[in-house]
Amino acid sequence: MLAIILPYYKISFFEETLQSLANQTDKRFKVYIGDDASLESPTVLLAKYKGKFDFLYHRFNENLGGKSLTKQWERCIALSGDEEWLMILGDDDYLDSSVVASWYTNFESFKDQSNVVRFGTKVVQQESNTISAIHTHPVWESASDSFVRIVKGVTRSSLSEYIFSRASYKKYGFKNYPLAWCSDYKAFLDFPDGKLIYSINEAIVYFRISSFNISGQQENNNLKNETSILFYQDVIKERIEMFTKEQKLELMMAYEVLIKKSRKLKVEEWIFIIKRYIIYFSLVPFLKSIRRVIISILKK
Questions:
Q1: Given this model, what pLDDT does residue 112 score?
Q2: Inter-CA distances, 157 with 18, 51, 120, 253, 278, Å
Q3: In whole angstroms, what is the distance from residue 160 CA to residue 41 CA?
Q4: Where are the domains of the chain?
Q5: Where do runs of H (alpha helix) occur along the chain?
Q6: Start and end of every Glycosyltransferase 2-like domain (predicted)?
Q7: In the chain, what percentage of residues exceed pLDDT 90?
Q8: Mean pLDDT on 133-149
Q9: What is the chain's alpha carbon radius of gyration, rounded to the nearest angstrom?
Q10: Which CATH superfamily is domain 2-216 in?
Q11: Cα dist from 229 to 69, 190, 280, whole Å
Q12: Residue 252 · residue 276 · CB < 8 Å
């Protein structure tokens, strides 16, 4: 059975989330709602949906998401039972009516072959009141190829669009980055655990960007940038062997560019980069990196 984990904090778009769950044509799922000591109680709203789908609501006495969003995800998952598959759905995201049905229809295709399943997505831009075209994926794809497509800007990714095995979650957990920024990226490099990601493109998850969520907020941009840099360092240190030689060089360049967008590289960062260019040696990228180091020194 499938557990849909719903970390709750803000009520602004929550009814649309609940309605999308009530609209599912296949009700073989249970929802676990973890209220992060919100100032906006959802109990009246939840009463409307009693009997429309199976859910458990629990209010935590302490707000944890403000300190560690990944820890809030984890304690919400801990509310769930013994379901083998998990989805974490944002309290402002929503599903089209066929998501659960499509998951079960495709189950035999990915059973024992994949630990991570993802859906097609559309991005809801709240401020402009627009919805993007559908983002689809190869039916079978390695975690490394998927991530490189994200790095290149060819595709996008968000936590809500994935279903993952409890076994993989228990093995790896979520990396506790500030604001949980890039924690989903790290998870979906880890959770596949050597298997391919399976995509269901005919069912859609709607991901909302608004001033109410972290993705749409500008005031934390510096922290987001530094966290992204830390994430890239972790990928290069821990997961680089997943990638081809060409992809390794692309990641190194993306890491370097990411830092330069917000500040100058530190000496230890240049050393880190140069060492990797030597390890993954390719003459032209190596010579270009040396040239960039020299230019950086001369500018000081």
A1: 95
A2: 22, 32, 10, 21, 31
A3: 22
A4: 2-216, 221-299
A5: 14-22, 43-48, 69-77, 99-105, 107-110, 143-151, 166-172, 183-190, 221-238, 245-262, 267-279, 283-299
A6: 4-112
A7: 77
A8: 96
A9: 21
A10: Spore Coat Polysaccharide Biosynthesis Protein SpsA; Chain A (3.90.550.10)
A11: 19, 18, 20
A12: yes
Q: Report how far Cα 147 is from the mean position of its chain's Cα atoms.
A: 11
Tell me the pLDDT tens digit for each residue of 194-208: 999 999 999 999 999
Strands 55-59 and 29-35: parallel
Q: Which amino acid is at 86?
A: L
pLDDT tens-digit readout, 9-59: 999 999 999 999 999 999 999 999 999 999 999 999 999 999 999 999 999
Q: Is the distance from CB of 113 to CB of 100 less than 8 angstroms?
A: no
The DSSP code for 46 is H
User: What CA–CA distance (Å, rounded) separates 227 from 249?
Assistant: 21
Q: Are 131 and 209 in contact (CB under 8 A)?
A: no
Interacting residues of 14 by C-beta distance below 8 A, sequence separation 6+? 8, 42, 45, 91, 92
Distance (Å, whole) CA 66 – CA 72: 9
Dist CA 259 CA 264 (whole Å) = 7
- 3 state SS for 171-183: HHCCCCCHHHCCH
Distance set, CA 90 to CA 111, 160, 205 (Å)? 25, 6, 11
Counting DSSP H helices and E strands in the chain, the numbers are 12, 10
- Cβ neighbour number for residue 222 with a 10 Å cutoff: 10
Query: Please, are residues 89 and 167 in contact by the beta-carbon 8 Å criterion?
Result: no
User: Is 101 within 8 Å of 45 (Cβ atoms)?
Assistant: no
Angle at 161 between CA 233 and CA 248, to 5 degrees: 25
